[in-house]
Amino acid sequence: MDEENTLLELNNVSTAFKIEGQYYNAVSHVDLKVKKDEILAIVGESGCGKSTLATTVVGLHDMKTTKISGEAFFEGQDLLKMSDSQLNDVRGAKIGMIFQDPLSALNPLKKIEDQISEVLDYHTKMSTEEKHNRALQLLEQVGIDEPKRTARQFPHELSGGMRQRVIIAIAIACKPDLIIADEPTTALDVTIQAQILDVLRDIQKENHAGIILITHDLGVVAETADEVAVMYAGEVVECGTTEQVFGDPRHPYTRSLLRSMPQGDMDVLNDDLYVIQGSVPSIEKMPQAGDKFAPRIPWIPASAHEKEPTMHEISAGHEVRCTCYKDFYFKSLEVKDV
Ligand SMILES: Nc1ncnc2c1ncn2[C@@H]1O[C@H](COP(=O)(O)OP(=O)(O)OP(=O)(O)O)[C@@H](O)[C@H]1O
User: Fold this and answer.
1) What are the two backbone dihedrals, phi and then psi, of residue 14, each rounded to the nearest 5 degrees?
2) From the CB of 44, is ligand 1 less than 6 Å away?
3) Which range is the signal sequence, renumbered to this chain (predicted)?
4) Is pLDDT above 80 for 292?
């Protein structure tokens, strides 16, 4: 791992929410690195803690009901120790954020240009003319055909894809070093999704930014990401390059996810789509110790799991949690073999 290129380094990050007087972990002991010029995808089913991890990094939790521990070094400073005003300076300037629902992220009462100017006002000393020119340049950069027209419009006058482009324009307005995109294409149809991903990739190349792309869409990951971290029940269960994780998936959860998508996990029979047994437990019901995925693969004997699962290096940079990957097999195959 090239330390000089590391933009963000998470060490042992945990986030717990207070529910009826008790704290429960939504994110547990996460170690991750995001490098310059790279897209790290965080994948997993709904409820695995992907968004919580992202909002933890940028300090968007109500600390009256949230406990956060660990370190998140960004350009040498621990984001988790920053005051609100320090975080306000970082968010929008050095870290840009793109969230799932572009309509709720935009102010319905303000014209697009004013919304872009707002972030420039907060973080730069640009003149009115400079801001105007920068807004048009940004709209062009994110692939809007008529920047002047769009600049004068309100969010409701734009299509979903256009709104998401505007959100990206706002997120990159100050040329952030890191962009966090949480399900940026989920609300969009497939053609528009591909265009938005192209925009993100272009920006990453042009600005040399690092991107954290949160998604449950493995197709998007395969096409876009350089590195992948698979999360289950608040933990990273497998990480590595996209080639490593998709080409040689090891953790039972990763293998199940890949097998549940068309053309996934080619080394196993794929004539029918696999359905992962059960669902992600709510945080109150999450197993507190042992392999959290074990209840969903009950045919694997308890002795295959570590009592306190740790990460194991399969090859340089490719890590998998728990030793159970060595004994895992798909139950449907067992049935077919009979
Ligand atoms: N503010 C909160 N208070 C209590 N529990 C929360 C809070 N935010 C999230 N959770 C719980 O934490 C767990 C992780 O949620 P999170 O949204 O991070 O998952 P996710 O993988 O991003 O899922 P999705 O794709 O649906 O957003 C879930 O069980 C969720 O219900």
Assistant:
1) -130, 145
2) yes
3) none
4) yes
Q: Ligand 1: does its nearest atom lie under 6 Å from the Cβ of 43?
A: no
Does the pLDDT value for residue 333 go beyond 80? Answer: no
Domain architecture of the chain: domains with CATH: 3-225 (3.40.50.300), 250-337 (no CATH)
Q: How far is the CA of 47 from the centre of ligand 1 (A)?
A: 5
Is residue 50 in contact with ligand 1, taking CB distance under 6 Å? yes
In short, whether 48's Cβ falls inside 6 Å of ligand 1 is: yes
234: CA distance to ligand 1 center in Å? 9
CA of 183 to the centre of ligand 1 (A): 14
- Residues 42-83 have pLDDT tens digits of 999 999 999 999 999 999 889 999 999 999 999 889 999 999
pTM of the model: 0.91
pLDDT computed for residue 271 by the predictor:
52
279 within ligand 1 shell (Cβ under 6 A): no
At 2, the pLDDT band (50, 70, 90 cuts) reads low
Quote the CA–CA distance of 166 and 269 in Å, as a whole number.
43
* Mean pLDDT computed over 262-266: 54
Taking residues 8-19, what's their average pLDDT?
97
Q: What pLDDT, on the 0 to 100 scale, is given for residue 277? A: 84
